[in-house]
Amino acid sequence: MAGPLEQFEIKPLAELSLGGIDISFTNSALWMVFAAVLVTCFMTLSMRRGALVPGRWQGAAEVMYEFVANMLKDNVGSAGRKYFPFIFTLFMFVMFGNLLGMIPHSFTFTSHIAVNFALALVIFIGVTVIGFMRHGTHYLRMFFPEGAPIATAIILVPIEIISYFSRPFSLAIRLFANMTVGHIMLKVIGGFVGLIGILGVLPFALLTGITVLEFGIAALQAYVFTILTCIYLHDAIHMH
Amino acid sequence: MPQFDIATFSAQIFWLFVIFAVLYVLMSKIALPKVGEVLERRQKTIEDNLGKARALKDETDAAIAKYEAALAEARNAAQADIREASEKAAAEQAKKTEALVKKLSKKTSDAEKAIADAKTEALTGVAEAASEIAREATEKLIGVKVQAKTADKAVSAIVGE
Asked: Taking CB atoms and an 8 Å limit, are B12 and A21 in contact across chains?
């Protein structure tokens, strides 16, 4: 019987290295490819006809487009329009990664802190660069809100700096923790089903409920990841 | 926990960047412009159709107004015709009544005249007859021949009373 952590193991499928750095194509990369292919197929094949009155698949693709577009518009405003392709790619990639992880024996690349943190770091650096490009050194005002008494600077500035720099960590760890814990829980409860004979129906029923919940979490965490990115983008563009 | 195995990080992050970048290009260059275009075209079609519908509605409203104006005009004309006809009829009726009244009153007066004539004639006849009878009676009774003139006078004196 496989342990609950075995599902997270990275297994190289093709050993590769570049300048001494390991860049093997792993099961993680394979499922990233699946996610990217599925997203691409979903967004292109369903829009192939580009019908005036959308069918089921086209309607679904349009809903995703408008969902992300509205999220961006509500949180960032019209200045965020040019970041729409990035935000959309981010949302779809993370959501498909989370959902593909729900397939038994698949691999959830979003359950890995390295992947999430790399994404979060790109977002963090990108947002910071956008902030400085739009506001110059005035962007440093982020760390000391306008109108606060100067005496409070000694407390406020460190707090703001810590909160600013903890963004990529909270972004990455939230997704990692949600995905990892959910999958471990499914695995552990699943292990009981076969072990306790006829009474196994109880953990099985529980498992069914948690599976539904996990699907919800898969979509919700992609949404949270994306909306936090939008909020950081808003801060960079409009400051506080 | 496999998540904390640092040896796997470089491979994961490398492929993340490669695949995410490819997906980003596919989305931004192919998929999203197509969706945006379809949505825009739908918006435009809806607006066009709404505009067309609005124009048609205006046209309909104008036609209805025109129709109502024509209807009102026709109603007024009809009412004028009715009024004229009824006035004409009333006038004719009045004329006819007047003529009838005239005719009847003429007949009445003719009849009255005839009656008066007849009465006068009758009275004259009676007087003549009376004077004749009186003369003959006088002659037979007392043998006096009374002249016609005297008898007439006497009769008319009595009748005239």
From this structure: no
Asked, for residue B24, whether it belongs to a domain, the answer is no
Contact check, Cβ <8 Å, A36/B39: no
Chain A residues with CB under 8 Å of B11 CB are 10, 12, 16, 22-26, 28-29
Is B46 within a domain? yes
Cα A173 to chain center, whole Å? 10
Say if the ipTM goes beyond 0.85: yes
> Which of A9, A40, A47 lies nearest to residue B38, judging by beta carbons?
A47
Q: Which amino acid is at A95?
A: M
Task: pLDDT tens for chain B, 161 residues: list them.
Answer: 888 988 899 999 999 999 999 999 999 999 999 999 999 999 999 999 999 999 999 999 999 999 999 999 999 999 999 999 999 999 999 999 999 999 999 999 999 999 999 988 888 888 788 888 888 888 888 887 878 788 778 777 876 65
Q: Is the dihedral of CA B45, B46, B47, B49 positive or negative?
A: positive
In a domain, B18, yes or no: no
Which pTM value belongs to this model?
Answer: 0.75
Residue B21 at interface with chain A, using a CB cutoff of 8 Å: no
Contact present, A106 and A211 (Cβ < 8 Å): no
